[in-house]
Amino acid sequence: MLKIAYDPSYAHPLPEGHRFPMLKYELIPDQLLHEGVITSTNLFSPGLLAENVITQTHDVDYWHQLRDLTLPAKEQRRTGFPLSARLVEREIRIAQGTIDGCRFAAEYGVAFNVAGGTHHAGSNWGEGFCLLNDQAIAANWLLNNNLNNSILIIDLDVHQGNGTAQIFENDARVFTFSMHGANNFPYRKEKSDLDIPLADGISDDEYLGTLTAVLPQLIARHQPDFVFYLSGVDILATDKLGKLALTREACKARDQFVFEQCIKNGLPVQVSMGGGYSPDIGDIVDAHCNTFKVAADLYF
User: Fold this and answer.
1) CA angle 215, 220, 223 (to 5 degrees)
2) What does DSSP say about strands 43-44 and 226-230: parallel, antiparallel, or unpaired?
3) Ranges for the Histone deacetylase domain (predicted)?
């Protein structure tokens, strides 16, 4: 069964000027339900993540500043959001949803979080709409509970997964792979185990050619036993924050290739949605929904 983490808090209302990025979190499950891709039984609402799990990935002092709403104003501006108790609750539910998704992925092959992909959050900082790094937290949860030994994080958002790279820079058990726009935020990059910076305006064929040449070799070389996939749709030509130029068809082909490689190698995969900032919300929702549809077709 396709299991998808979703909670109403994902669409947490924000002050004017911050609401648009949140709309997709309501619209994605609504669209999937409308099209009959899923039913309500496919959706589950995650609980609150335990503090001791958070601090296996994030520094205690940083977490306490989030929890107690004492994060300095300068650091709040870096996140892009005004800090609030509801926003912190949202973040910990997202991270718990990604952990729950790991359990479902182990059982069914794949599982989704409608939100997540908060890859700019480092061990002691938040940045770029990210406070807690959901896939990093979940990867450490798998490792610390001896459920997996070798993890591959495939980050295909248009932005480098700088927080994820920093968190795992000294952990050989987690291989971080980020293929992103060279000239996109963050302008100060961290060092992933493999970074592939892409030129502005890259074509569908060049993008997919690069991915298909690299990913099978990564899997063969590093032999992961679990995969996290960050499937941002800000690679689209329509995206107002991205500088790549992919079509929706290429974005869908990207997803299909990642899932096919996971299936071929018997690798469970947890998928978090990542970014998408096209001016037309329909472009964002349709591209994200394609990721779910591809998985439903391949796995179920």
Assistant:
1) 110
2) unpaired
3) 21-287
> 209-214 contacts: CB < 8 A, separation 24 or more?
210/179, 211/156, 211/179, 211/254, 211/257, 211/258, 212/257, 214/177, 214/179
Indicate the SS3 state at residue 132. Answer: coil
Which domains are assigned to the chain?
A: 3-299 (3.40.800.20)
Query: Coil, helix or strand for 226?
Result: strand
| Main-chain dihedrals φ then ψ at residue 240, nearest 5 degrees | -85, -15
Average pLDDT value over all residues in the chain: 95
Helix (H, G, I), strand (E, B) or coil at 30: helix
In the beta sheet, which residues pair with residue 271?
A: 112, 229
Give tens-digit pLDDT for 66-125: 999 999 999 999 998 889 999 999 999 999 999 999 999 999 999 999 999 999 999 999
Query: What DSSP designation does 11 have?
Result: G
Q: Which tokens belong to 7?
A: 């909670």
Reported as a single tens digit per residue, the pLDDT across 151-178 is 999 999 999 999 999 999 999 999 999 9
Q: What are phi and psi of 286, to 5 degrees?
A: -60, -40
Q: Give the pairing of strands 110-113 and 269-272.
A: parallel
pLDDT score of 39 more than 70: yes
Token duo for residue 226: 């679990």
Report the C-alpha gap between 99 and 129 in whole angstroms.
20
Give the pTM: 0.97
Residue 200's pLDDT band, with cuts at 50, 70 and 90, is very high
How does 22-42 read in b/e, with b if 16+ C-beta sit within 10 Å?
Answer: bebbebbbebbeeeebbeeeb
Helix (H) or strand (E) holding 91: helix 85-108
